[in-house]
Structure formats: structure tokens, C-alpha cells
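User: quick one, sequence for these C-alpha cells?
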């Protein structure tokens, strides 16, 4: 497991105000946040890994990250190639799959979390597993049972809530979940187990649709599960802290890592009017974003008056692939030349998001 040392990876000491926010968040203890958008490729995994690294390495937080995406991108990102090869060459590696597997065998929750160290990132990790996708059917079937009050179904649906409970017992300050982009059964179980969700989004029309989908779908799930629990025979079997889970929206991060199509750079690629339309549409969308977020997710706001905008992540060019190949967070990528400037930007960006995240957590 990771050593819980404040390493000041970025060389910039954390401001006293941010430390006091962290101390407050720490006293709440073990809050669980997932990073979700049902649009793919918007930078969820990159944000989870780098925000968790900022909190672990610079704030000295004890963070557990769960890779809940069967694509295992986060696991590949943070583990070295050799370590990943060793682990996945084992016939039955312990992973997020080991958390669900006992349930599908009718054995209830597993007894111990399969936690590993995420090396250079400073946090602890439950690695992803392509076999998780095989459990989509189990979770979908048991969801039907849960909605009608079946204890087996409720227990299965809350499998990740049990992970969060166990992480709290292990004194984690934060539990983060990375997820794939679907609104399927695995992600339903993750979302229903969380205290908070953060939405990484691109500034485009599809992200507006995605937040509308999240708002309407999650609301229905919460209602259905509450009805199921109210009909259950033996709800005492599920801890009260789990039953009282009430997922809240903690904020959104905008990502601009897809540059606007290059129309501005290469006007000959497109007619001038197309270029102007695209730039105007981008402007309209970004101006309307706060209103749209409130409309779609307002009922999940942690606090009615809070500012959900956690920050903007600009395109960090070759720092992103470099960070992947070095298995280092962006704030500690090794390299000189253009990397010096990009790394500095990454340090400012992730410090800013971490501070805003803590602010919204303790609001
Ligand atoms: N700030 C950034 N600057 C440059 N590239 C970035 C940045 N953030 C993410 N990327 C790149 O964008 C791609 C998609 O990012 P990422 O995998 O984090 O998205 P995702 O939302 O998790 O995708 P999926 O829906 O498949 O899980 C990756 O190749 C990543 O390296
Ligand atoms: Mg991802």
C-alpha cells in the first residue's frame, strides 16, 4: 500500500487555506466520489488519476481509487508495464472482479478489499478487470429483484457501497471511482453507492445531452431503490449508512483537450462561414453551460448556492501521452524543454481543482 507521506511532488507548498480545507474534509472521512459522464473520451480517467495523485502526493491524503471500468484504462495508466504484465498474467488476479465474484457465487460480500499501491501516483488502487463486464448481467438481473424488495438484489446492488464502508474502516480520506461511459448496470451500482459525483465534460453539444441523461436516469434509479428497500423483508441487513446514501453532485470540470477541430489553424480546411459557426456554437455552449448544468443536475446540488464549476483543464499537449508512458502523474512527469512549461500548467490546474473539490466537499 502507498505510504501516506506528504511528498510535495510539485514543489509548490500547499497554501494554508487549502490545508485547512483538507483537514476539514479529512474529519468527514472516507467520502466516496465517482467521476462520470455518459459521453466517452472526455477525460474522466485522466482527471481521476491526476486529482487523486495531487491529493495524495501534495496534500498527504490517503486515497483509494477503484478502477470500475472494464477497459482498465486507469490501471494501465498508473501501473508500470512490467507490473501490469505480471498481475494480468496470473490466472485469477485480485481486482475489482474479486469484489463482485463472491456475490455471483451466492457467498455474500468478500471479506477483504484487494488493495494495491499505485506506485508513482501515491494512492492505493483496486485494479480494473475486463471480467467485470461479465457481471453486467448479474447486476442487471439482481436490480430487478432489488426494485421489488428482494434482499439478494439489494445486496448485489450495494456491492460497491460495501467497498466504501470497508475503505472507511481502513481510514481512507477519499474513495474515488473511475467508470466507463455507459448508463448500464455496473455504473448504476457504482453511482448508487457514492456520496458524490463529479462530471468531467467537453464543451460540446453532446455533453449537454449527457448531463440531461445523468440527471433524469439517476433520479429514477434512486427512487426505485428506495421503493425496493421500503418493501424489503430484512433491510436491517444493509447498514443504515448505506441505506441513507443520497448521491449529490459536487461539480463539473470542463476539458478542452480536443482542440476545436483545427478550423482556426487551417482555414483552408473549411469555408470561413463553417469556421465562424463552429466558433460561435462553442461560445454559445460554454456560456449556457452553467444554466444547463443547474437545470439538469440542480436537484442533486450539494448546496443550493454552491458553485459547481471546479475548473477547466486545457489541452496539455504531449504531457498527457508522456505521463502515460512514464506512469507518472502529469505534475511529476520527467522532462525538460516544453515539458517544463506544460508540467507547471498541470500543477496549477490540478492544485486549483483539488482546492475547489475540497471547498465543495466541506460547504
Ligand atoms: N488535458 C489533457 N491534455 C491532452 N490530452 C488529454 C488531456 N486529458 C486527457 N487527454 C487525452 O484524451 C484521451 C481521453 O482521455 P481519458 O481516457 O481520460 O477519457 P475518458 O473519459 O476516461 O474515456 P473513456 O470514456 O473511454 O473512459 C486520452 O488519450 C488522454 O491522454
Ligand atoms: Mg476512462
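Assistant:
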Amino acid at each position: 500500500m502507498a505510504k501516506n507521506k506528504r511528498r510535495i511532488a510539485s514543489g509548490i507548498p500547499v497554501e494554508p487555506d487549502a490545508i485547512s480545507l483538507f483537514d476539514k474534509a479529512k474529519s468527514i472521512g472516507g467520502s466516496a466520489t465517482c467521476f462520470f459522464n455518459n459521453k466517452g473520451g472526455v477525460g474522466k480517467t485522466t482527471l481521476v488519476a491526476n486529482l487523486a495523485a495531487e491529493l495524495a502526493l501534495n496534500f498527504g491524503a490517503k486515497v483509494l481509487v477503484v478502477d470500475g471500468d472494464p477497459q482498465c484504462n486507469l490501471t494501465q495508466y498508473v501501473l508500470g508495464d512490467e507490473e501490469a504484465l505480471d498481475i494480468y498474467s496470473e490466472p485469477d488476479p485480485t481486482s475489482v472482479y474479486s469484489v463482485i465474484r463472491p456475490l455471483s457465487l451466492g457467498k455474500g460480500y468478500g471479506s477483504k478489499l484487494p488493495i494495491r499501491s499505485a506506485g508513482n501516483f501515491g494512492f492505493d488502487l483496486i485494479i480494473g478487470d475486463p471480467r467485470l463486464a461479465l457481471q453486467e448481467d448479474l447486476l442487471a438481473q439482481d436490480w430487478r429483484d432489488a426494485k421489488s424488495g428482494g434482499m439478494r438484489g439489494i445486496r448485489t446492488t450495494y456491492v460497491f457501497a460495501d467497498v466504501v464502508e470497508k475503505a472507511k474502516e481502513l481510514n481512507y480520506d477519499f474513495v474515488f471511482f473511475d467508470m466507463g461511459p455507459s448508463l448500464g448496470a455496473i455504473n448504476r451500482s457504482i453511482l448508487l453507492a457514492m456520496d458524490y459525483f463529479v462530471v468531467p465534460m467537453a464543451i460540446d453539444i453532446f455533453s449537454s445531452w449527457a448531463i440531461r441523461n445523468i440527471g433524469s436516469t439517476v433520479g429514477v434509479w434512486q427512487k426505485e431503490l428506495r421503493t425496493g428497500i421500503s418493501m424489503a423483508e430484512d433491510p436491517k441487513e444493509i447498514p443504515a449508512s448505506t441505506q441513507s446514501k443520497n448521491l449529490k453532485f459536487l461539480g463539473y470540470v470542463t476539458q478542452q483537450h480536443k482542440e476545436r477541430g483545427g478550423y482556426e489553424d487551417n482555414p483552408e480546411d473549411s469555408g470561413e462561414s463553417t469556421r465562424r459557426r463552429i466558433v460561435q456554437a462553442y461560445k454559445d455552449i460554454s456560456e449556457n453551460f452553467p444554466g444547463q448544468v443547474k437545470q439538469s443536475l440542480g436537484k442533486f446540488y450539494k448546496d443550493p448556492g454552491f458553485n459547481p464549476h471546479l475548473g477547466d483543464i486545457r489541452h496539455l499537449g504531449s504531457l498527457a501521452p508522456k505521463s502515460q508512458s512514464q506512469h507518472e502523474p502529469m505534475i511529476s512527469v520527467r522532462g525538460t524543454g516544453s515539458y517544463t512549461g506544460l508540467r507547471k500548467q498541470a500543477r496549477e490546474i490540478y492544485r486549483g481543482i483539488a482546492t475547489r473539490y475540497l471547498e465543495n466537499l466541506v460547504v
